[in-house]
């Protein structure tokens, strides 16, 4: 029996059923922590001028054929529905976004700045930082042909990552596919897709394997060695200040005009990124090419400054995708941040939240006779916009306060003598400070 089969085995009498391989449960407080991260990132996207878009969880399979590339197409969860149509669980949102925009292009003011938070599915081998069901946070800008779009989407990604708690832990690797393609042509690559695949895997394979892949793509042995030597000197990436040195090294390769245009875009992008306050997080990396077929020029990844973990996000410019869905020529750029790698990064740095934020109040009825009053006060506080809970189990005052200390920032104690005087006690559960507050209105103290 394979590991895939074992996950489908009916449970025994005393065995609880488990999630399928590659899927995870998120009970409290984990689900609350994940929700808090999404809340922070949504707020950051809105601060950067992005509006939220929702896309379907199931799309026609043709949406991904020829549009996302072989890698995504091979990982899609595809099936025939009850109408005998070929459909797929959504593996990424960009094709859906392009389809939606194509139908609204005539009436949608430009630029369009949309973000999505979507549950996605890919049938790939589960491992650390990779599950078959996951959440992705996307930022996309449509209608801007200039590099301002790349800078703005990276700046918004920085806001979102910082809001999530990752400030100082990440940087952006940036490249241009036109430059990468031109380098391949100059070195004699005959198989462009294979050349890109080799370059994309440079940091994940040893030198001999990399050389073999390049030679299979058409490079002569000496050209393959030259490229491997060049990439080896780059390390984790080159800052904007050292970008010129890289171009000096490849000046004699005979790059064509398209490649030179890509190099010029990178120079200008570095200057603009510095002006936008991203200079401390921007590095040039010629090994970043991204696997999806629809990218047209700029490509980028987010990565952890420490360690060799998977990319925190990936993205780039996709200027021809909207036309594939019948829309007008529309320049576009976007990126996607995965939940699993971000969680790994935050946990490793001790910045993962414990759960959702603490409640504002926990209402404590100090005698059984005051439970009805606790219900009334809880309803009033909730109506005033506060997060509030109370005991539903008939616990003692001591146990109620213990629960309050675990779940809330403040406790509201309803005691018989104080209530007769028209007051309640509000206790700060961090400092232990306590003060009387009028019961007549929750407004002044809520």
Which helices and strands occur, and which strands form pairs?
Elements: H1 3-6, H2 30-47, E1 51-52, E2 58-60, H3 70-75, E3 77-80, E4 86-89, H4 94-104, E5 112-121, E6 133-142, H5 148-166, E7 170-176, H6 177-186, H7 192-200, H8 207-216, H9 221-234, E8 238-239, H10 243-249, H11 257-275, E9 282-284, E10 298-304, E11 313-317, E12 332-338, H12 339-348, E13 359-365, H13 371-383, E14 388-390, H14 397-407, E15 408-414, H15 416-420, E16 423-428, E17 434-438
Parallel strand pairs: 1-5, 7-9, 13-14, 13-15
Antiparallel strand pairs: 2-4, 3-4, 5-6, 6-12, 7-10, 8-9, 10-11, 11-12, 15-16, 16-17
Helix pairs in contact: 2-5, 6-11, 7-8, 8-9
């Amino acid at each position: 029996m394979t590991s895939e089969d074992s996950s489908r085995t009916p449970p025994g009498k005393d065995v609880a059923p488990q999630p399928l391989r590659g899927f995870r449960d998120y009970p409290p407080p984990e689900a609350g922590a994940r929700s808090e991260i999404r809340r922070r990132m949504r707020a950051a996207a809105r601060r950067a001028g992005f509006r939220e878009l929702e896309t379907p969880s199931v799309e026609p399979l043709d949406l991904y054929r020829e549009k996302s590339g072989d890698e995504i197409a091979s990982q899609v969860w595809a099936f025939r529905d009850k109408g005998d149509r070929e459909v797929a669980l959504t593996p990424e949102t960009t094709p859906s976004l392009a389809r939606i925009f194509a139908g609204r292009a005539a009436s949608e003011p430009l630029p369009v700045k949309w973000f999505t938070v979507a549950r996605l599915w890919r049938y790939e081998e589960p491992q650390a930082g990779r599950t078959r069901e996951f959440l992705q946070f996307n930022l996309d800008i449509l209608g801007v042909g200039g590099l301002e779009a790349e800078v703005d989407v990276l700046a918004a990604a920085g806001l979102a990552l910082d809001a999530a708690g990752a400030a100082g832990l990440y940087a952006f690797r940036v490249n241009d596919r036109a430059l990468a393609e031109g380098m391949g042509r100059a070195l004699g690559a005959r198989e462009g897709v294979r050349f890109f695949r080799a370059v994309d895997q440079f940091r994940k394979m040893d030198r001999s394997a990399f050389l073999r892949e390049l030679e299979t793509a058409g490079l002569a042995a000496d050209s393959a060695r030259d490229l491997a030597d060049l990439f080896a000197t780059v390390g984790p990436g080159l800052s904007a200040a050292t970008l010129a040195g890289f171009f000096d090294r490849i000046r004699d390769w005979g790059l064509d005009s398209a490649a030179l245009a890509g190099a010029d875009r990178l120079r200008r992008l570095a200057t603009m990124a510095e002006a936008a306050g991203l200079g401390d997080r921007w590095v040039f990396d010629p090994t970043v090419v991204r696997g999806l077929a629809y990218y047209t020029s700029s490509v980028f990844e987010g990565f952890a400054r420490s360690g060799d973990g998977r990319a925190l996000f990936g993205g780039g410019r996709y200027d021809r995708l909207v036309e594939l869905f019948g829309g007008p020529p529309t320049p576009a750029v976007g990126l996607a941040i995965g939940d699993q790698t971000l969680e790994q990064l935050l946990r490793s740095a001790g910045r993962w939240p414990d759960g959702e934020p603490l409640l504002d109040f926990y209402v404590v009825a100090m005698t059984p006779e005051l439970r009805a009053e606790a219900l009334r006060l809880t309803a009033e506080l909730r109506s005033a916009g506060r997060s509030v809970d109370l005991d539903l189990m008939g616990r003692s005052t001591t146990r109620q306060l213990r629960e309050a200390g675990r779940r809330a920032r403040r406790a509201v104690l309803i005691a018989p003598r104080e209530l007769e005087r028209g007051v309640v006690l509000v206790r700060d559960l961090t400092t232990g400070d306590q003060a009387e507050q009028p019961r007549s209105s929750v407004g002044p103290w809520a």
